Amino acid sequence: MGAWVAFRWAAAAGLAVSVLDYAALAGLPRRQRRFDLTDPAYLLKFFGHPLAGGLLASAYASSQPEATPLVAVILGAAAPGIWRTIVRSGSAIARLLLGHVPLPPGPNRSRTRV
Asked: E strands of 53-104, at which residues?
């Protein structure tokens, strides 16, 4: 399967997840909704999920020539969770590393600790 075919399969799966998410959102009263379809942030999420899934499946299909449409569909549906986990893990690691980095000496800071 080629990268373009994998992109289309995964984007279709990501779009299906976005539509199901919107259908669940439509069942809530307007006051309880965090976003609405007219909100630009939600529109970015609605169209960003299929795009992210398509890019992920395209990269996978490029590196694995024996990839199947089923793998592309699974990657497309799971892509939002995968990217969310990558971002959260990266930010947690950055906070951990930055918490242990000593501050550079400045005009009001000495090199020795008191």
From this structure: none
* pLDDT confidence of residue 104: 58
Burial of 60 (C-beta count, 10 Å sphere; 0-12/13-18/19+): middle
Q: Note the pTM of the prediction, 2 decimals.
A: 0.68
- DSSP label at residue 12: H
**Per residue, what are the HEC states of the chain?**
CCHHHHHHHHHHHHHHHHHHHHHHHHCCCHHHCCCCCCCHHHHHHHHHHHHHHHHHHHHHHHHCCCCCHHHHHHHHHHHHHHHHHHHHHHHHHHHHHHHCCCCCCCCCCCCCCC
**pLDDT tens-digit series, residues 40-65:** 877 888 888 899 899 999 999 999 98
